[in-house]
């Protein structure tokens, strides 16, 4: 049974992510862990720690969080594709999102985190602000980010840019392999040439990737004379791409493309779901 973690701030965007997850895994046995990391609207640390019952800020915020979670479960129950194979558990906690995610990852065998790209404020910085960057950099768990207003589509065409500097294995790519298999998707692996021929290790990694997906629809694209960002954007224009996938290769490809200036070119203008898979080391 899959264990899926669903953060929510009760915004339309977080609901969109939850709805996407329910649709994506409609045929699978899943436990969805839906949590709200709340903060009281008015909160002063010294008062709340010393006189929590007198001021009641935390208690009130917790009650409101639980009430909204109950409403959310009722809304989920009305989703047409909701499966009898799906179980939902809810959590209301006065804690930061990143701390709570870390806690869940320690106590539960979470397979995937699905989250929206914007919060209740609608600010673009919510996706690539300090909290999300921390989650993507630190957690050893795949994260699937769903853009605001993205209507669910079966992921038939998946784009997987890679610098081939990662030694792939089935365990690392298990969630991607399941998505490809269950949705009869085509995986488009894409390498953007830097002007040099592939090294022996890159050729070996290319073969490993091909072996892992040998029973799936798999294409390898070698792109030249453009940047990675340009190649990704051009591929999406020419092809009906439903999902973008990257490995969090902290030492080169992912670090350079995701946490530097090109973040605005890919992240803020990305209109399809984005799956980030951590390296195993």
Automatic annotation (TrEMBL):
<protein>
    <recommendedName>
        <fullName>UspA domain-containing protein</fullName>
    </recommendedName>
</protein>
<dbReference type="Pfam" id="PF00582">
    <property type="entry name" value="Usp"/>
</dbReference>
<comment type="similarity">
    <text>Belongs to the universal stress protein A family.</text>
</comment>
<dbReference type="InterPro" id="IPR006016">
    <property type="entry name" value="UspA"/>
</dbReference>
<dbReference type="InterPro" id="IPR014729">
    <property type="entry name" value="Rossmann-like_a/b/a_fold"/>
</dbReference>
<feature type="domain" description="UspA">
    <location>
        <begin position="1"/>
        <end position="147"/>
    </location>
</feature>
<dbReference type="InterPro" id="IPR006015">
    <property type="entry name" value="Universal_stress_UspA"/>
</dbReference>
């Amino acid at each position: 049974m899959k264990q899926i973690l669903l953060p929510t701030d009760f915004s339309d965007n977080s609901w969109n992510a939850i709805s996407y997850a329910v649709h994506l895994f409609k045929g699978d046995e899943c436990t969805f862990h839906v949590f709200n990391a709340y903060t009281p609207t008015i909160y002063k640390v010294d008062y709340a720690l010393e006189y929590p019952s007198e001021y009641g800020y935390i208690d009130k915020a917790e009650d409101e969080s639980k009430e909204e979670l109950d409403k959310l479960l009722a809304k989920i129950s009305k989703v047409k594709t909701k499966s009898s194979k799906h179980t939902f558990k809810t959590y209301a906690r006065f804690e930061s999102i990143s701390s709570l995610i870390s806690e869940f990852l320690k106590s539960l065998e979470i397979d995937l985190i699905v989250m929206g790209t914007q919060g209740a404020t609608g600010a673009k910085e919510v996706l690539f602000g300090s909290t999300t960057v921390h989650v993507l950099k630190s957690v050893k768990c795949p994260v699937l980010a769903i853009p605001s207003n993205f209507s669910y589509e079966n992921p038939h065409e998946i784009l997987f840019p890679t610098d081939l500097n990662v030694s792939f294995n089935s365990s690392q790519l298990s969630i991607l392999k399941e998505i490809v298999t269950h949705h009869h998707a085509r995986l488009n692996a894409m390498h953007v040439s830097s002007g040099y021929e592939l090294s022996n290790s890159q050729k070996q990694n290319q073969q490993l990737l091909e072996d892992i997906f040998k029973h799936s629809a798999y294409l390898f694209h070698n792109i030249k004379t453009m940047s990675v960002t340009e190649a990704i954007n051009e591929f999406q224009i020419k092809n009906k791409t439903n999902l973008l996938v990257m490995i969090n290769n902290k030492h080169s490809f992912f670090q350079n493309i995701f946490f530097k200036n090109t973040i605005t070119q890919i992240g803020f203008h990305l209109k399809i779901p984005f799956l980030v898979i951590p390296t195993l080391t």
